[in-house]
Write a structure and sequence with these properties.
HIT family, subunit A, globular, 9 strands, alpha+beta, 9-stranded antiparallel beta sheet
């Protein structure tokens, strides 16, 4: 076999430079995303919506729906997508979410769960899917966004202990070593669950600010689990207000028997 000659130094330097540049660009994107609390809103309002309106497709988004939301592939995770309203909605604390006839963003997010499967290149069963929205104190962005991604195995295992919980009743739960409250809801469709309304009602009864609550949603026998995480900095009821912690952005269980 003939001996292959080493590539010229200038080619190695050029290749190294390209790799470094690419890494820097990706790093800058992540930094901007994390440190700019309006990044998601700017992407949706300045790229996705105008591009769709001009007939050029959804811009940086995967989809812009006439129903008032956009889908954006998150920079984190293999398959994670975000559902983001195309109207300015800050988050859990927004009064607009409690208005009669307000959009059912959770139902919309669940209807678009197949985008995760497409990103992963394989079907993700409903039992491995989940939705999450973080509280005002547990988020980095000031535009409402629902995380659509896989549920973690630890969360699945913990929730299974409540498979026989009475439907429509809040019960205390320990998930990811944090205090949560959950309800098992009988429903054949995610559109019948209305998790925000259920958490809002509980927050009002308990005298809590709704903006300090996060929501997690996953399948349960005969319906869905609605999980409420109320922000508490410390103590036996400590909770980060970021129910996204109950998801697995690596989707490690997908493809396993």
């Amino acid at each position: 076999m003939p001996r292959l000659s080493a590539p010229p130094r200038r080619l190695l330097q050029a290749a190294t430079g390209l790799l470094v540049t690419a890494a820097l660009l990706l790093g800058c994107q992540a930094v901007v995303y994390v440190h700019n609390p309006d990044a998601l809103w700017q992407i949706v309002s300045q790229s996705c919506v105008p591009s769709e309106a001009a007939g050029k497709g959804p811009g940086k988004c995967a989809k812009v729906s006439p129903g008032g939301y956009a889908l954006l592939k998150d920079i984190r995770g293999k398959g994670q997508y975000l559902l983001i309203p195309t109207a300015r909605v800050a988050g859990m604390e927004s009064p607009a979410l409690a208005q009669p006839g307000s959009p059912d963003y959770f139902g919309d997010a669940w209807e678009n769960r197949d985008y995760v499967s497409k990103a992963l290149g394989t079907h993700v069963p409903d039992a491995l899917m989940s939705l999450a929205i973080n509280s005002a104190k547990g988020r980095s962005q000031n535009q409402l966004h629902i995380h659509i991604d896989c549920i973690s195995q630890a969360t699945r295992n913990a929730l299974s202990a409540y498979d026989d919980a009475a439907q429509g009743t809040w019960v205390d739960a320990r998930l990811n070593n944090h205090f949560y409250r959950l309800m098992r809801v009988a429903a054949t469709s995610a559109a019948d669950v209305h998790p925000y309304g259920k958490v809002l009602e509980q927050a009002e009864v308990r005298g809590q600010a709704i903006g300090d609550n996060s929501i997690f949603m996953a399948t349960a026998p005969g319906g869905f689990f609605v999980v409420d995480g109320y922000y508490q900095a410390r103590g036996p009821y400590a909770n980060p207000g970021s129910s996204e912690e109950l998801q697995d952005h690596a989707c490690n269980d997908v493809g396993r028997p």
